[in-house]
């Protein structure tokens, strides 16, 4: 999941040319996280027939921890510098 997150962020930042303004990027990550959670809960309810409470109850401690850490990384990943994600050299005078 982490590899997909990194690849998706690289593509989105490059495609949308998102400026490095930390509030915009953090907002972008939080909105994406909200969409992801809504999609997961909708599919979980529809496909598995579980409530949200039941789904959390059946998570084992290790998988649950990894899941929540990956969700946190998903939300903050757009915050990384564009040049860090794209492998481009950092522009010293960019002010970002």
Instruction: State the low-pLDDT regions, or none.
Output: 89-96
Kindly report how far apart the N and C termini lie: 28 Å
Largest sheet: none
Using only C-alpha atoms, the radius of gyration works out to: 16 Å
Q: Based on DSSP secondary structure assignment, what is the total number of beta strands?
A: 0
Structural class: mainly alpha
SSE sequence, one letter per element: HHHHH
Shape: elongated
Look at the structure and give the mean pLDDT. 76
Name the helicity range: over 70%
Number of helices: 5
Q: Tell me the domain tally.
A: 1
Q: Strand share of the residues?
A: under 5%
Would you summarize the structure shown here?
73% of the residues lie in helices and 0% in strands. The protein has helices at 2-16, 22-48, 52-58, 61-76, 82-86. Helix 2 packs antiparallel against helix 4.
Structure description:
- The protein is mainly α and 96 residues long.
- Helix 2 runs antiparallel to helix 4.
- It is elongated.
- The protein has one domain.
Descriptive terms for the model:
elongated; 5 helices; disordered C terminus; mainly alpha; 96 residues; single chain; 73% helix
């Amino acid at each position: 999941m982490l590899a997909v997150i990194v690849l998706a962020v690289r593509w989105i930042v490059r495609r949308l040319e998102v400026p490095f303004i930390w509030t915009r990027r953090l907002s972008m990550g939080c909105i994406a996280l909200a969409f992801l959670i809504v999609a997961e809960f909708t599919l979980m309810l529809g496909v598995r027939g579980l409530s949200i409470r039941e789904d959390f109850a059946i998570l084992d401690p290790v998988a649950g921890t990894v899941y929540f850490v990956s969700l946190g990384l998903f939300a903050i990943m757009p915050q990384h510098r564009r040049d860090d994600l794209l492998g481009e050299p950092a522009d010293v005078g960019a002010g970002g």
